Amino acid sequence: xKAKKKLLMAIVGAVFTLLGTVSSAPAQASLFNFKFQFNAQxxxxxxxxxxxxxxxIQAGVTPDGxxxxxxxxxxxxxxxxxxxxxxSSNSIVVGSNLARPDNSGLSADVIGFNDFKNFDPTNPKFLxxxxxxxxxxxxxxxxxxxxxxxxxxxxxxxxxxxxxxxSTNAFTSISRVPEPASTLGVLMLSALGIASLLKRKNWxxx
Length: 206
Prior knowledge:
- By secondary structure, the protein is of the alpha+beta class.
- It has helices at residues 2-24, 142-148, 180-200; strands spanning 31-39, 46-54, 60-61, 67-73, 75-80, 83-87, 90-99, 107-114, 128-132, 152-158, 164-176.
- The longest helix is centred in the N-terminal third of the chain and has 23 residues, at 2-24.
């Protein structure tokens, strides 16, 4: 019985230690998940993925008046048919009333993701661009996108292999990335569940 007691106490103690570590850690910036999904009009195949971004990155200004957030996206995933692309260190550009990237001549509010390592200003191609009706974003602030991002818009993906995939009706959304404390909270509940299970099985803790 003493062995069972030691096992339970070790589990609960470990969870409390982890929770204490997180609670004493310095506060970090909030991370958000920009998700997208559409069927490419070029191939008919489903395209989906996400860009994680940090809303605390200091903003700069591009020559055309858009807002630039350097290295604001630490990771991304693009699923294009059978291909999966993963990467990191992308910057974000948010602009109002810019030219839509499909050469349609229409104006749009635009969100673009790119690492800008081999960027050609004379032939600008972003890794991913999402365009919405003018003035629909409200502002160029990343923190505002959580509440103002439209649920659908134009999407243009230029994959690392050179394929171009687009849709005029792409689904987009933003959600907060769960913080570590949320995950450890689940561990805490699991530990309490173990204690309850032991009691139901009449395993004495004495």
